[in-house]
Amino acid sequence: MEESVEESTSSNLLTETLNVLQPSFAIRQILQGTTQGKEIVQSLEEKRSIISKQRKQLVRLLVSHLLETNGETPSTDTKKALAVALMYEFPCLLDGTGSGYGAWYTPGRNHKPATGFLEERLRNVRKRMRMLKRPRHQEQQEEQTVPSTPESDVPPEKLLEMVEWMKVNRYPVSQVEDYMNQTALHRGKWIRSNGSKSLPEILTEFPRLLDNPGMISQDFQQLHPEAVGKLFQNWATMSDRILTYAQREGKLPLVFDDMTPDRALKVLPILLPPSVYKIGGKVHRPTIEESRKSFINIQPVGTNMVQYLQTAERTQPFPYILCLGDDMTTCQTFTIVSDNAIETDTLLGAVDLCFKAFFVLDLNYTKQCLPTWEFIQQAVYEIDGHESSNVKFLKTSIATLA
User: Fold this and answer.
1) Antiparallel, parallel or unpaired: β 282-284 and 277-279
2) N or C terminus of the chain with fewer C-beta within 10 Å?
3) What is the pTM assigned to this prediction?
4) Which intervals of the chain are annotated as region Disordered (predicted)?
5) pLDDT tens-place string over residues 156-185
6) What is the DSSP track for 4-22?
């Protein structure tokens, strides 16, 4: 009932928008003109959802019509009118953005380019039509939004005294925990002052962050107290929807014994494939396998951890999760940060710790699995930040499975 009221309210807003936007688009008529389009309409009417393959077909059909009727460079209002008309015709496609159609089209602003499925398809088609190099698509990986932390009420001299003491002392644990708690606000400001510090700099100044269990979570609570337990609270329900969606997408067998919350975590990089990116002018096209390993790296039981960490520090110099076992069975789990392996009781605990490490250490998400971490941030921890069109679409798709 709540969903119907929400869709009704959104439809009213879309109607008001449609009345002032030109030209108008007969979405249903456009789609009914092809066999693929008819199948898409049928799925939207009967199931109130479409799979990603149908979504891509839908975008191709609409952009093709847009180019035929408005040329290579339709105006912002024209593209917005197309997106609004689509949402008005099929409210089940509304996403969680403020406009309701942000995953399909978001106008450019503040020197940032327009985004969304329609814009991205239009950009690709123009590239082929003009035989010109498309302007580089820059992943708009915004820095994690960190609320301004209040000033510490601990005197500066005392703060420095505690920081220096912890550089050479790991025990007693109770005193370390107390000092880490008292210096948390100071630490957060220090890490972010004058630009982000490098990981070696941070660990030299605050070595107890990684070698004392619970310190990352304690610091994260200072940044986002409302989000601390969100993964454990939300994942049981969300994982069921993700697994159902993955089966519908053909990413998991229809009959599968390992339908567990852990399996839902492992399938995320498959549902959210990585984007192309550049480093120093060189184009990188990560594979799904690279994305999976950059998120959760599975190694056999009995792996020599000392040797593994020495190699991993060079090949994977970013936080990630390590599982000892196989794709079906997990025996041990760790969060890997630099050359530190922090053991956790569960895979979910390792993902939680790894996510919080990105925030506490003020690190950018790993590009090979960027959409996966964006989804976890936005959909699970409910922390605002940049999200790609694919992330918006997955959020919307699993919401319909509630």
Assistant:
1) antiparallel
2) N
3) 0.73
4) 132-155
5) 899 999 999 999 999 999 999 999 999 998
6) HHHHHHHHHHHHHHHHH-S
